[in-house]
Amino acid sequence: MSEQTYDVLIIGAGPAGYVAAIRAAQLGMKTACIDDFIGKDGKPALGGTCLNIGCIPSKALLDSSKQFHNLTHGFEAHGISAKDAKIDVGTMVGRKDKIVKQFTGGITSLFKANKVTAISGFATLKANRVVSVKAADGKSTDYSATNIIIATGSSPIELPFAKFDGKHIVDNAGALDFSETPKRLGVIGAGVIGLELGSVWKRLGSEVTILEALPDFLSTADADIAKVAAREFKKQGLDIRLGAKLGKAEVGKNGVTLTYTDAKGEQTLEVDKLLVAVGRRAATKGLLGDNTGVKLDDRGRVEVDEHNWTGVEGIWAAGDCVRGPMLAHKGSEEGIAVAELIAGKAGHVNLDTIPWVIYTEPELAWVGQTEAQVKEAGIPYKTGSFPFAAIGRAVAMNETAGHVKIIAHAETDRILGVHMVGPVVSELIAEAVVTMEFKGSAEDLARIVHAHPTLSEAVHEAALSVDKRSIHKAN
Ligand code: NAD
User: 365 CB less than 6 Å from ligand 1?
Assistant: First the structure.
């Protein structure tokens, strides 16, 4: 057992860990990053869930399936017809794998360029800032560091009565790798993963049924955008059943038989494949040895203060394994902030302005408080909204569903939340984040020139609408 010493040792090479590693190295610190993920080719792969089995591969499949769907359903309005369009799922998945490899390989190159040492294996934190790493061959090596950043991410929650078997009952990673389009796909959980991956396979021809335990659809989103999304998903043929409590999932010869109860009583549903997407939990199992001083909360997350410090000298944590939304971009910003704090600089992440995006069609994106939250807090407010149906660019694109909604303080006009459903709102939300980060008002947005004809005019008009002075709709 040898012991190697670093200025910064990072556990986890996902969006929080690898970004922290690059920033720490940029700041002149001797840095190493440990990760145990093994890619489809059997070799260590950097980038964590996001690059390997999350954000990037799901976007690749969302794009492929959108192209196919347009070819078979969306292009007639443009006068384009294509007979006998086919999808080769193997080629589609292969393209996704190539994209994943390009990006995970990109992190390897970035580590080399920045002189970050990549260490492959499972890390356990011990007392006195020592980390023991067990490699694939079973050998353990100890490393020590002045600073340690825990960025171990999260893993899918498994339901005890619908355990993942990788064949019939799968998690997000399994649903990215079906070898053919399942005839009937069941999804447990109408959250981000359920809706995105449910959309992928629906567009390719699956009959998709989503069972959601809660009585309201997308209850974390603003009710107005959730309503539009529910309407559009229904039109697309996604069968979303709310208030559905799953009792059991039995794997048989013909797939999986689900038994659940809803308002109508006990129901059964037969599917060929079942995706369980009921949320994720912090990946902290086996992370802490004895007497580290690091504490986990009741949900297994590493306890940290507002600066991502664990309260133990030199030990920090960032990303999905700590409080706050489980989003790649939130983790990356925390990784940067921690590296900068370690280097004696200012580092801070404003959790109030983290954007959310769901990459369905239409897309959903929001930042800040929902109208229900503002109302509940007793804050005086006003709202403005504008439909994409009145935006020239959206009409030209034939993507008119949805709107932009802005919530502003009734007295100060400061923007409290921006909620969007519609075409490419994943990109439009950035303007709202910038405005909120600079504590801007609806009037600020209303006075900024927006290019014509663009989708961003919906943001401009919604800001004008807060003051009932929209130009292109009746106020
Ligand atoms: P989620 O929290 O978004 O949704 C889970 C859903 O499952 C909820 O609606 C919940 O009410 C429901 N549910 C829970 N238990 C259930 C049960 N027994 N039966 C039926 N429904 C049940 O979780 P997710 O979709 O699994 O995603 C996990 C995490 O990954 C999220 O935190 C998400 O932010 C992140 N993620 C983000 C993106 C993105 O940013 N676009 C994409 C994928 C994942």
Answer: no
